[in-house]
Amino acid sequence: MKILVCISKTPDTTAKIAFANGGKKFEEAGVQWIINPYDEWYSLVRAIELKEKDPATIIHLVTVGGADAEPIIRKALALGGDEAIRINTDSSDSYYIAAQIAEVANTEKYDLVFTGKETIDYNGASIGGMIAALIDAPYMSLATSFLMEGSTATITREIEGGEEVVTVNTPVVVSCQKGVAEQRIPNMRGIMAARTKPLKVLEPAAADSLTSIESFELPAPKAGVKLVSPDNVEELVRLLHDEAKAI
Question: Which residue in 137, 56, 242 sits closest to 115, CA to CA?
């Protein structure tokens, strides 16, 4: 079985966010970059667990980005990937990114393509479905459990008001979330091995970008807390009516 795990570089959740060029560009200086947690903790670890069950399984990792994404993909290799692919282009357009990954998937013919349910920067959650459409494969989103038996996957996925259990034959694209697997930390052996694992750099395929970013804007600063005496009911009512309502 061959598995392709999509890896995205995202800012650390504790990073201080700022914008440049009048709000048109994300300021990357001083930002600590990490593997998107949904890619690392769930989709990649579930792929590793499948390989542990069947050592013949091959895990390829793919990311779309410049050379600065290589430390991120190397960390993913340290966790347990066999080979990494970096598509040498930067874009924030979901369709363009999905088209690059689909080109790899169509060439290599994977049984499974795993993505995280979303990235923690743009929260688009659209790339998995686009990849599935571009490679003409079924798409199962929001998976909380993934079991494999032969060429048939049994997937428990989150739906409005409950859960749905589906079975599907490979190839299939699956977006993973909490419940699919548990977070792992690379060990020293994995870190050392990752230095020599193959990392292939591909030039991007021709594809359109369907969206562009016009501007970024930080959320309004949080208002301070107002304390009201328990005896001053009229003031509490006024605040709830005039100020809390506006919020």
Answer: 137
Question: What would the two tokens of residue 229 be?
Answer: 């005496």
* 3-state class (DSSP) for residue 178: coil
Q: Which domain holds residue 62?
A: 2-220
Asked, for residue 243, whether it belongs to a domain, the answer is no
Residue 190 lies in a domain: yes
Number of domains in the chain: 1
Domain membership of residue 107 (yes or no) is yes
Residues composing the chain:
247
> What is d(CA 47, CA 44) in angstroms, rounded to the nearest whole number?
5
Enclosing H/E stretch for 201: strand 199-202
CA distances from 61 to 18, 44, 77, 153, 168 (A): 30, 9, 8, 20, 23
- Omega prior to 171 cis, within 30 of 0: yes
Domain assignment present for residue 237? The answer is no
pLDDT digits (tens, 9 = 90+) for 108-142: 999 999 999 999 888 888 999 999 999 999 999 99
CATH number, domain at 101? Answer: 3.40.50.620
pTM of the full structure: 0.86
Q: Do the beta carbons of residue 147 and residue 154 sit within 8 Å?
A: yes
